Amino acid sequence: MDRSRIKTFVLLLLLLVNLSFLCVYILDSVSAARLQAEGKQELAAALSKQGIQIGAEQIPDGGRTEIYLAARDLALELALVEAVLGDAAQLNQGGGIYAYESAGGTARFQDTGDFEIRPSPGAVPATDDPAAGIGSLLLAMGLAAEPLRADEAAGTVTYVCLVDGHPVQDCLVTFTFEDSALTSIAGRRPMDTHQKQASGDLLGIGTSALIMARYISSGEQVASRVISITEGYSMSTGAYADARITPTWRIETDGGIYSVNRGTGDVTLAG
Q1: What is the fold, at CATH topology level, of the domain defined by 43-70+196-271?
Q2: What whole-number distance in Å separates Cα of residue 93 and Cα of residue 26?
Q3: Which pTM was predicted?
Q4: What are the residue boundaries of the structural domains of the chain, listed by start?
Q5: What is the per-residue pLDDT across 157-184, written as a single tens digit (0 to 9) for each?
Q6: Which of 200, 159, 153 is closest to 177 using CA atoms?
């Protein structure tokens, strides 16, 4: 057999091998999709038995597989304060608490992420459009957040902080106004710096949804229909330097929004 025929034979053999791998991949993908669809139908049926209706098409395919380890950075914290108040002195009060003093006002930050900033009168110019002013402040402070609720009578606007574009349910920041002038910024922020870490033991949507259903049936909450399921985060309590930001499932029902921590299985009523 001459060299050209051998070369042709080898190429045909490689083509057949690649085609066989492609066929196996396609069959595996079809089988996985079928099993996934069946799993969604089974979950919808299981929730229906507990009095909660959901369409299989509403159930997401998967979820995030990483957590974040959060760390406090005092230099970044100072920069955040100065973005609002101008040049400030940083004072260590012990117990993880730092105070900030400036001609533009005062601030107090804890190692749990809780904080309060109180501008002096006139330090932050009054505006006829508080929403636009808040957006500019958040950008200057380095905080990603989206509006959550507003209370005109109280003069407050509350934002929920974001990580990777998803809400961190227990990191809320409230802006308080009096006669269109900002008087305080207070709440909890998610982090200064964070490091992503893979985690293979996070709860899937099936287990999380059933945990939520048991939570509802065992308490005073009432829900009969799931409206949507989205992803979110929750920041652990305790020392801020050791904070963990864990993915959650945010399950919106006709009885409220329930958040299931995918690391611990804890359920909270988020809204």
Answers
A1: Lipocalin (2.40.128)
A2: 62
A3: 0.78
A4: 43-70+196-271, 73-190
A5: 999 999 989 999 889 999 999 888 899 9
A6: 153
